[in-house]
Amino acid sequence: MSNKNQIRDKFLKTRSFLSKAYKEEVNKIIERKVNHYIQRYNLEKFAIYLSTENEPNTLNVIEANLKKGIEVYVPLIIDENKMEFRKITNLETDLEENKVLNILQPKKTCELLPEGNYINTMFIPLVAFDKQLNRLGMGKGFYDRWINENNYSGYKIGLSASSQLSNEHIDAEEFDVRLDNVITEKEIYVPFIEEEQEFDYDVTYSVFNDETIVG
């Protein structure tokens, strides 16, 4: 049996117990890192989620980049099986509340993302992730389905508090999409790959500035 539900339940509880002060500090650091990423790679357009209470806050990131003229696409849930991305230009006028899901969404009048690979970077929410960057969301499969159906080949970057890292491997299925990076307040994770063989390395010494260095 898959361990996904068990891990999801565990980390949903973990996330709900995080203090307000901790979440605010995490948000500030992740926000700074995401903005640095966007600037460093000269992104002219990207997709990003609209954060809920227990997710790393994205609204400041969206607002800052809209002011720079960067194209921002956010998810709109059509029904229980379908999600699409719509372009927003103003957080105050382009969003409305989905009262069924209790989330913010773009209005249906907002411009539709032309095609999946029109963007090359997507910032994705998560409940938990493991060292191989397998991702657990809320269990609806919206992102996995959209990425597979649209043959999206760009970067998939999770945003998460470091407390959501699972030391237990997540039982990913063929349909599940692995992330390229996860940005947390502590570090940026890349997939950990198990070596097929273990190598024994001789310890060698060299002298540098009169200090012995193990290499």
Portion of residues within helices: 10-25%
Q: Major sheet, described briefly?
A: 7 strands, mixed
**What is the strand tally?**
13
Strand content: 25-35%
Uncertain residue ranges: 203-215
Mind telling me the C-alpha Rg?
20 Å
Major beta sheet, strand line-up: 3-2-1-6-9-10-11
- The chain-level structural class is alpha/beta
From the spread of the alpha carbons, the general shape counts as globular
Q: How far apart are the termini?
A: 44 Å
Mean pLDDT: 90
Q: From N to C, what is the helix and strand string?
A: HHEHEEEEEEEHEEEEE
- Count of helical regions: 4
Architecture blueprint of SSEs:
Layout: H1 4-16, H2 20-40, E1 45-48, H3 59-67, E2 71-79, E3 82-88, E4 95-98, E5 103-106, E6 121-124, E7 128-129, E8 135-136, H4 142-149, E9 155-159, E10 181-183, E11 188-189, E12 205-208, E13 211-214
Parallel strand pairs: 1-2, 1-6, 6-9, 9-10
Antiparallel strand pairs: 2-3, 4-5, 7-8, 10-11, 12-13
